[in-house]
Amino acid sequence: MNPISLICILAGVSLNACAQLLLKAGVNAVGHFEFTRANILPIGWKLATQLPIIGGLTCYVFSVVVWIVGLSRVDVSIAYPMLSLGYVVNAFAAWYLFGEVLSMQRLIGIGIILIGVLVLARS
Questions:
Q1: Nearest alpha-carbon partner for 20 in 96, 117, 91, 80
Q2: Is the Cβ–Cβ distance between 30 and 46 less than 8 Å?
Q3: Which domain holds residue 91?
Q4: What is the pLDDT of residue 95?
C-alpha cells in the first residue's frame, strides 16, 4: 500500500471515528430517551437540531467519499479490516472525552485488533 492509499484509508477511518464521537456527544446533550408515538417528533427534532449530530452526519458523508477513493486504490480485503482501527481510536477517545471505562479486557481486545491490523498491513 503506497502512502497516498494509506492516507485515504486512515482519513476515512478517522472521519468515521469522529462521526461516532460527535453522535455520542449529541445524544448525551439530549439525554436518555424512549421513542413512543407521543414523543417521536419532539425527540426526533431535538436530535436533528443538535450541532454535534449534524457534524457527525457530515463526517459520515465525507468519510464515505474518502473511503471510496481509498477503495479505488486498495484491495477491499486489506482496506475493510482497517476500519477496526476506529474501535481503537473511539475506545481511547470515549475514555478521555466521556469518561467511559477502559477495562483490562478492553485493552487486551484493542491490542489484538492492533496486531491484526499490523499483520494485514504488512501482507
A1: 91
A2: yes
A3: 3-121
A4: 97
